[in-house]
Amino acid sequence: MLQGLQLHPLDSDAMVAGNLDLGVIFLAQTGIGIFGNSFLLCFYSFCLLTGYKLRHTDLILNQLVLANSLVLLSKGISQTIVAFGWKYFLDSVGCKLVFYFHRVGTGVSFSTVCLLNGFQAIKLNPSICRWMELKIRSLRFIGFCCFLCWIQNLSINSSIVIVVNGPLSCKNITVRASCGHCSWTMIERYSSLYAFLYFSLDFISVGFMIWASGSMVLALHRHRQRVQHIHSHSLSSRPSHEARATRTILILVSSFVTFYSVYIILTIWSTLVSNRGQWTVNSSVLVASCFPAFSPFVLIISDSRISQFFITCRRGQLVLPK
């Protein structure tokens, strides 16, 4: 939520060394994440523009890596600079933009994982929503859903522009942050209500993802039971494309829910507790960046088209659909 980019005064060599180590961690995490997301963004864009072995989920995955890149470019880079000791490089406008784009990127990533999870659940079990089963095969409909994800998060998070302030805005007790860097204004008696309203949509989305994941697991289990007597042991032990895709989505969903749950707990703690430590801020930013940084490598490993693409390019046999 609204935390991070806060730095208490450095008054010892040990604090400098600690922040240097933290800066290296943030730098490595951000650099690795940007590299992986940039690669996937280029690959999915290539597939969408040329039609190379195009899948219906490519547009959703392209939006996911774009949102992850926005998270890393906003909070990851700025927090790395802060960890290296440069405290006042952002003014009030810079703080507002960093927090706004970080929250929009996180929200779009959240919505995209929900979208991907729901589409795969409907694809495996069309009885959930039969009219949607035909819609999800249309790139135009998928593009419309992706557009709604951006519009929703751009509008919902507009309040951040009002709440977040620069490093010189710590004037009274209503400011719920240290005066070291970016701060935000929060009236004491409304802080709990604000935190609840801010995360209510996220809690609903987590519940939806858990339901959709359970539906996918149940559908795959029933399908395997139906075809078990048809296929031989060697064939049945080889996972189908749908099973591999579902397994990848379940890995993404479980990792996202885990990291984001820890992030929410740390964020609510830093919002409600006045005497919180800097470790809470650093930990929340580090946890919030874990999914955007490492999820692209899950997609790279699980997508067989990527290795096939490099093999065909090296052989000079790449054939694009007309």
Structure description:
The protein is mostly helical. The chain has one domain: Rhodopsin 7-helix transmembrane proteins (Rhopdopsin 7-helix transmembrane proteins, Up-down Bundle), CATH 1.20.1070. Helices cover 73% and strands 1% of the residues. The chain contains twelve helices and two strands, in the order ααααααββαααααα. A two-stranded antiparallel sheet has the order 1-2. Helix 2 packs antiparallel against helix 3 (92-124) and helix 7 runs antiparallel to helix 9. The chain is globular, with a radius of gyration of 22 Å. 35% of the residues are buried. Mean pLDDT is 75; it is low at 1-18, 169-180 and 232-238.
Tell me briefly what this model is.
By secondary structure, this protein is an all-alpha fold. It is built from twelve helices and two strands.
Q: Helix/strand/pairing class, anyone?
A: mainly alpha
Portion of residues in beta strands equals under 5%
Low-confidence stretches: 1-18, 169-180, 232-238
State the share of residues found in helices, binned by percent. over 70%
Write the layout of secondary structure elements.
Layout: H1 13-50, H2 58-83, H3 92-124, H4 130-135, H5 139-156, H6 160-163, E1 164-165, E2 183-184, H7 191-227, H8 233-236, H9 241-272, H10 278-288, H11 290-302, H12 304-315
Antiparallel strand pairs: 1-2
Helix pairs in contact: 1-2, 1-11, 2-3, 2-11, 3-5, 3-7, 3-9, 7-9, 9-10, 9-11
